[in-house]
From TrEMBL:
<dbReference type="InterPro" id="IPR036188">
    <property type="entry name" value="FAD/NAD-bd_sf"/>
</dbReference>
<dbReference type="Pfam" id="PF07992">
    <property type="entry name" value="Pyr_redox_2"/>
</dbReference>
<feature type="transmembrane region" description="Helical">
    <location>
        <begin position="368"/>
        <end position="390"/>
    </location>
</feature>
<feature type="domain" description="External alternative NADH-ubiquinone oxidoreductase-like C-terminal">
    <location>
        <begin position="348"/>
        <end position="405"/>
    </location>
</feature>
<dbReference type="Pfam" id="PF22366">
    <property type="entry name" value="NDH2_C"/>
</dbReference>
<protein>
    <recommendedName>
        <fullName>NADH:ubiquinone reductase (non-electrogenic)</fullName>
        <ecNumber>1.6.5.9</ecNumber>
    </recommendedName>
</protein>
<dbReference type="InterPro" id="IPR045024">
    <property type="entry name" value="NDH-2"/>
</dbReference>
<keyword id="KW-1133">Transmembrane helix</keyword>
<dbReference type="InterPro" id="IPR023753">
    <property type="entry name" value="FAD/NAD-binding_dom"/>
</dbReference>
<keyword id="KW-0809">Transit peptide</keyword>
<keyword id="KW-0560">Oxidoreductase</keyword>
<keyword id="KW-0285">Flavoprotein</keyword>
<keyword id="KW-0274">FAD</keyword>
<feature type="domain" description="FAD/NAD(P)-binding">
    <location>
        <begin position="1"/>
        <end position="322"/>
    </location>
</feature>
<dbReference type="InterPro" id="IPR054585">
    <property type="entry name" value="NDH2-like_C"/>
</dbReference>
<comment type="similarity">
    <text>Belongs to the NADH dehydrogenase family.</text>
</comment>
<keyword id="KW-0472">Membrane</keyword>
């Protein structure tokens, strides 16, 4: 049986590893990246707490001793379900069974302005880009340090979305402001720096308990984060955010953590796509109307008695779906008469961290809430367990311990020529930085980079900007 898996996130990687070196199956794993990304820690890369390599694991290393798993780096352009063929930019691949594990990408809910100007964080590259911007922002602030009005937008950061990603990122940036940035930039007064977390619902961490929500807000207030609930961001022009209340916030940095949507390749019947850009599947993760095409993880929408509107887009859902599908596919490939197993998600709990010694954990059975230092240790332990690769676990643990005892980290690096030009669409407010940067490049490097008017979006040439694929991993929230 020839199985093609598209996507190497939590779901796709788990499926491929469970099928590794099993008889009667040949596996082709397709992705745009050559590494697996651990999304729950993207925010730590963005805030210079971890290096990108710490949360990334090479796919080929994971399957070095495999006899039946092969990997191709390419972009899927279309799926021909009639002829059982996946079309890509390097050729076509036939399959007996196709599994879509394409994960989710940032959902801007149709707001084109935010899509062009805000910073998402759904891939390692996007996390690095955000890290670069955060550091460069304060370098630029030094140029206007004597003008309080011009300085104000540099000293304000707006995070949109009060889910786990938004809460964790807000806490991490607040800790940088309180402990690290004043030492790096003594010429700036960080007591005037404002961090806003804007959430459209009445509470943060809406998927967790009321106690966790209240405690997370308390922690954020302790760190100096301004939490604005029941409010959405309506507009952002690169210099000013307009809220649904009519209030405005001067800022050059808006980080979008407000939602995700499934990555669906071409060739899927639009009638099968439901809310959140997810594909309808049955209890075996088989796409409705197909006999040999499956979807798992964030891109799949499975209605069950416990979850009539579909399972939550969590890492643990993706992992357990990949594990069960592998088991069922092995039964099919071996000709076993044993019945296939239906999937159901058993919630073991959820957790989120707000910062040093501050975290919340909810365990449903028995119903237990944990907060503070114990929850923080629990959060760290779980993430270390889920990280792929022993070396990565050791490096992350060392980084965390170093930061815990020194209140610092040595990863606040700007790599010229990489951070601001690896996005096919650069935010308008980065244009002055781009133009200034171009003056430092040698002529060959300048070639092909268009100089635009101030109201246009810079689009570097393909030769300068590697294609950045949409994230093929599950949502950055880990379940116990």
């Amino acid at each position: 049986m020839k199985i093609v898996i598209i996507g190497s996130g939590f779901a796709g990687l788990k499926l491929a590893r469970k099928l590794n070196n099993k008889p009667n199956v040949e596996v082709l794993l397709i992705d745009k990246y050559n590494y697996h990304q651990f999304q729950p820690l993207f925010y730590q890369v963005a805030t210079s707490s971890l290096d990108a390599s710490n949360i990334s694991f090479p796919l080929r290393k994971a399957f070095q001793h495999s006899k039946n798993v092969r990997i191709r780096l390419t972009t899927v352009t279309d799926i021909d379900t009639t002829n059982n063929c996946v079309k890509t930019d390097i050729g076509d691949f036939d399959y007996d069974v196709l599994v879509l594990a394409t994960g989710a990408d940032t959902n801007f809910f149709g707001n084109k302005q935010m899509q062009a100007l805000a910073y998402p964080m759904k891939s390692t590259v996007e996390a690095l880009r955000l890290r670069h911007h955060l550091i460069q922002n304060f370098e630029d602030a030094l140029r206007v340090k004597n003008n309080s009005e011009e300085l104000k937008p540099y000293m304000s950061i707006v995070i949109v979305g009060g889910g786990p990603t938004g809460v964790e990122l807000s806490g991490a940036i607040a800790e940088m402001r309180n402990k690290i940035l004043p030492k790096d930039y003594p010429e700036l007064d960080f007591s005037t720096m404002k961090i806003y977390l804007v959430e459209g619902s009445p509470k943060t961490l809406g998927v967790m308990s009321e106690k966790s929500s209240e405690q997370s807000c308390k922690y954020l207030h302790e760190l100096g984060v301004t939490v604005i609930n029941n409010t959405v961001v309506k507009e952002f022009d690169g210099y000013k955010v307009t809220l649904s209340t009519g209030e405005t916030i001067e800022t050059k940095t808006v980080i979008w953590a407000a939602g995700v949507k499934g990555n669906i390749p071409g060739g899927i019947d639009p009638t099968l796509v439901v809310r959140g850009n997810r594909i309808k599947v049955d209890r075996y993760n088989k796409i409705l109307g197909f006999n040999n095409v499956y979807a798992i993880g964030d891109v799949a929408s499975m209605e069950t008695p416990k979850y009539p509107t579909g399972h939550p887009q969590l890492a643990n859902v993706a992992i357990t779906q990949g594990k069960l599908l592998a088991k069922n596919l092995l039964k099919i490939s071996s000709g076993s008469r044993e019945p296939l197993e239906e999937y159901e998600y058993h919630d073991k709990g959820s957790l989120a961290t707000v910062g040093r010694n501050r975290a919340v954990v909810d365990i449903p059975h028995p119903k237990i809430h944990i907060g503070g230092f114990l929850a923080w240790v629990f959060w760290m332990s779980l993430h270390l367990f889920l990280i792929v690769g022993v070396k990565n676990r050791v490096q992350i643990f060392i980084n965390w311990m170093y930061k815990y005892f020194t209140f610092d980290q040595n990863l606040r690096l700007i790599f010229r020529g990489l951070g601001i030009t690896d996005n096919a669409q650069l935010p308008q407010h980065q244009l002055p930085t781009v133009q200034q940067h171009l003056q430092t490049l040698i002529p060959d490097e300048k070639a092909g980079v268009p100089v635009t008017q101030s109201n246009q979006v810079v689009t570097p040439s393909p030769a300068q900007v590697p294609t950045q694929p949409a994230s093929a991993t599950s949502v950055a929230k880990v379940v116990v």
